[in-house]
Amino acid sequence: MALRDQINRHIAELSPYEPGKPLEELAREFGITDAVKLASNESPLGPSPKAVEAVREAAGSLHRYPDGASFELRARLAERLGVGGDQLVFGSGSDEVIELLAKTLLGVGDEVVYAWPSFAMYPIVTRGMGATPIQVPLDAGLAHDLSAMAQAVSERTKLVIVCNPNNPTGTSVGAEAFDRFLDRLPERVVVAVDEAYLEFAQRADMPDALAWVRRRPGVIALRTFSKLHGLAGLRVGYGVTGAELAGYLERARHPFNVNRLAEVGALAALDDDEHIRATLENNRRGLAYLGSEFDSMGIEWWPSDTNFVLARTGADAHDRLLREGVIVRPMAGFGMPDCIRVSVGTPEENERFAKALRRIREAA
Predict the structure, then answer these.
(1) 44: which of 84, 133, 259, 273 lies 20 to 30 Å off by Cα?
(2) pLDDT score, position 11
């Protein structure tokens, strides 16, 4: 009997998550050693210097297991967010908390409702548990169609995920529409609000997910240290929810899933206000620059509440930009073959991207 016959069918049929192309891979393929990577929404200013120093100081204790309860980080975050420590669940990135939700809630025959295109891990963790993903198309503005999502909820729905702001489109929904949406959902349905890009949002009426955590059992807000704080390489995220749901998720969590360096780095990054301000200002200026450049080239693009921009540059733009030493994210896997997603970089990286894109368009 073949090994494949022994593998759970819902695992064998999965397509693995495809991350943005690493700089090292571009060097191997094309010999380009000075490439810029604008594909994975990483912080262009690097990690918090305070986090780097904390990690350096902690490196000598790597022979010890980390604090499995993330006590210090838990206490500091709880104080900052105004929640109880027992309402926090930590993960190796916020996507692990999504996986914990899947492990805790889902089985064969259950359904998960989310918008599409959105974060590619939603269908992977859903199918990984043998459950059924229910993908609701975005509206004409590439934002969540919350009315259609509410209508898609059935007796089999265990989990609804709202990515706000949304990845990969950069769009967001406002508080009034979000509140109406949650009011329509059955109380038995767990709602995950993925707020990985929340800190970059500029709209004035962003929903208050933490208020819903207090109001409605079964709401969880997901956040990360990967974006604003520049700690993508350490992998630390968290969920904020009611103590009861948090307790169930803790039962599904692996011990020591947040490593020692990730915890001390995240704790230090929380209080690095100077780095946070610089990152937000760089992002604000970068978004304005990219939008202006797209306009000047006659390229359709979508205003963003994140640290990236979605643009309709043509089906071959991604591959041609690679040969210019610029890595962006192709959108074919999200059903948008003529679009790319470009992360905000430093001013120099943004300019290099714009000049490369202009060159390939003029050469077409």
Answers:
(1) 259
(2) 72
